[in-house]
Task: inverse folding
């Protein structure tokens, strides 16, 4: 990057900070409380324009170069939700952080909308790291990566073959491939279930090949569809994504119905040993139905590695509940502070 371009980018960030801070009066996720203090940015991901929120530390000094962290959101989420909260909190600890909308979601480009393609998600992270590495405020040799839920699975996968990532962490990491093939605690998937999923995907692929439009369906069932048998995982997901607690207009609670076919063939933890000798931190909830994914990733990884299990925390508790997020952020700040 030329000195002139670096200066222009630095000036743009400095000029924007006061304007964004004026939005700090937001009192809900939908109003942008997790984006307070950030500036809107965009960057290229091949042919797709990506949208992000860039956070800078308190008392930001344009003459310094800071360690930086890319923060990747869950399946069906957007940057203003839990990813934005973690990015915001880590910026307060002294890092430049970037929360971004995955391709096909939120304000980022990509068609069809609401497609959850693991390959695209991994490439999204690569492009975000490239964007950060070219910012004049960022030390390109001190970039880390953090993902939440499915974003954690994608982040662990991406770091296996991206040496630009110097330290990697996952919070309630979700292996979307194993979850589709085998299920999670309390929601097992049988062989017949897998065959039914694939048959449904195949039928829809044939319809689209014949000219029908891409089909999307509801991701999290509404309360009107609940029964006594509705798993607690779905109930908690509803409470976060579809109530004022975590709802955001950019998160549409939809998914492309052919997506599970892509998930079935995805194995994000297949090369966990490749992250070493770079450090790995996994944070999970002691009551999370997804705990096994963090344990699996931890087992497959080599040192240096650490698994922090927060007692009493469910999967969605670690999205935003202060009593669980606060110790998670403290651990993440210490981890990245020591390793970036």
Result:
């Amino acid at each position: 990057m030329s000195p002139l371009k670096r200066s222009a980018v630095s000036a743009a960030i400095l000029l924007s900070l006061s304007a964004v801070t004026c939005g700090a009066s937001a009192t809900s996720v939908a109003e942008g409380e997790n984006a307070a203090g950030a500036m809107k940015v965009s960057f290229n991901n091949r042919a797709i324009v990506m949208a992000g929120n860039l956070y800078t530390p308190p008392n930001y000094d344009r003459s310094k170069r800071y360690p930086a962290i890319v923060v990747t959101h869950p399946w069906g989420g957007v940057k203003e939700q839990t990813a934005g909260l973690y990015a915001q909190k880590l910026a307060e600890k002294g890092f430049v952080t970037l929360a971004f909308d995955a391709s096909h979601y939120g304000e980022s480009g990509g068609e069809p909308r609401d497609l959850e393609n693991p390959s695209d998600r991994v490439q999204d992270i690569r492009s975000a790291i490239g964007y950060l590495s070219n910012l004049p405020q960022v030390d390109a040799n001190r970039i880390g990566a953090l993902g939440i839920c499915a974003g954690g699975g994608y982040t662990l996968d991406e770091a296996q073959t991206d040496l630009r990532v110097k330290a990697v962490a996952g919070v309630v990491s979700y292996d979307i491939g194993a979850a589709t093939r085998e299920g999670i605690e309390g929601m097992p998937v049988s062989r017949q279930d897998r065959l039914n999923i694939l048959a449904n995907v195949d039928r829809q692929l044939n319809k689209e090949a014949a000219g029908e439009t891409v089909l999307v369906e509801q991701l999290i069932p509404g309360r009107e569809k609940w029964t006594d048998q509705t798993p607690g995982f779905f109930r908690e997901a509803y409470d976060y994504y579809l109530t004022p607690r975590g709802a955001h207009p950019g998160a549409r609670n939809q998914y492309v119905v052919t997506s599970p076919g892509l998930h079935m063939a995805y194995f994000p933890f297949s090369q966990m040993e490749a992250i070493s000798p770079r450090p790995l931190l996994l944070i999970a909830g002691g009551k999370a139905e997804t705990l096994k994914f963090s344990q699996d990733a931890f087992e497959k990884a080599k040192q240096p590695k650490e698994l922090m299990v927060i007692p009493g925390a469910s999967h969605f508790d670690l999205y935003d509940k202060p009593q669980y997020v606060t110790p998670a952020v403290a651990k993440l700040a210490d981890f990245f502070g020591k390793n970036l």
Notes: Confidence is low (pLDDT under 50) at residues 1-23. The longest helix spans residues 3-21. DSSP finds eleven helices and twelve strands in the chain. The chain has one domain: 3-181+260-331.
